[in-house]
């Protein structure tokens, strides 16, 4: 039935959004590049995040876009291989113009993470999880 899931996000400016995500380490499938959309690849499995210009996104979704300054529709979580990788990504986010709203910190004794908003206000969570420390 389902071979792959794609996440679609509206952005104000595709070129600026692509530049932001490129600077923090994501790659892109150039075959899907247009002036109004781009295809970002995440992780080894190449999870697809499509970035669509807002008007185009609204035409697909047939719904209004959430105001990311006053509410969240989604929190996108990505994993990290180490605490250092969390710290490095957050430094890249800062340098690329993102908003770190939760600096790196330990949580529940087995997770280390941070959270940021991209240029369009979409919220991202990056976590390193030490599964050997999960309380049983």
What does this structure look like?
With 136 residues, the chain is of the alpha/beta class. The chain folds into two domains: 1-64, 2,3-Dihydroxybiphenyl 1,2-Dioxygenase, domain 1, CATH 3.10.180; 73-136, 2,3-Dihydroxybiphenyl 1,2-Dioxygenase, domain 1, CATH 3.10.180. Helices cover 24% and strands 36% of the residues. It has a four-stranded mixed sheet with strand order 1-4-3-2. A hairpin with a 4-residue loop joins strand 3 and strand 4 (47-53). It is globular, with a radius of gyration of 16 Å.
Which structural traits does this protein have?
136 residues; alpha/beta; 2,3-Dihydroxybiphenyl 1,2-Dioxygenase, domain 1; four-stranded mixed β-sheet
Summarize the model shown.
With 136 residues, this protein is an alpha/beta fold.
Shape: globular
- Could you report the average pLDDT, rounded to the nearest whole number? 94
Distance linking N and C termini = 36 Å
SSE pattern: EHEEEHEHEEE
Helix content: 10-25%
Q: How many H/I helical runs?
A: 3
Biggest sheet descriptor:
4 strands, mixed
Q: According to CATH, what is the class of the largest domain? A: Alpha Beta
Which superfamily, in CATH terms, is the homologous superfamily of the largest domain? 2,3-Dihydroxybiphenyl 1,2-Dioxygenase, domain 1
Number of strands: 8
Question: Which strand order does the major sheet show?
Answer: 1-4-3-2
Task: Determine the strand fraction and express it as a percent band.
Answer: 35-45%
> Stretches where pLDDT falls below 50 for ≥5 residues?
none
The CATH architecture classification of the largest domain is Roll
Give the structural class. alpha/beta
Report the radius of gyration as a whole number of Å.
Answer: 16 Å
* Overall tally of structural domains: 2
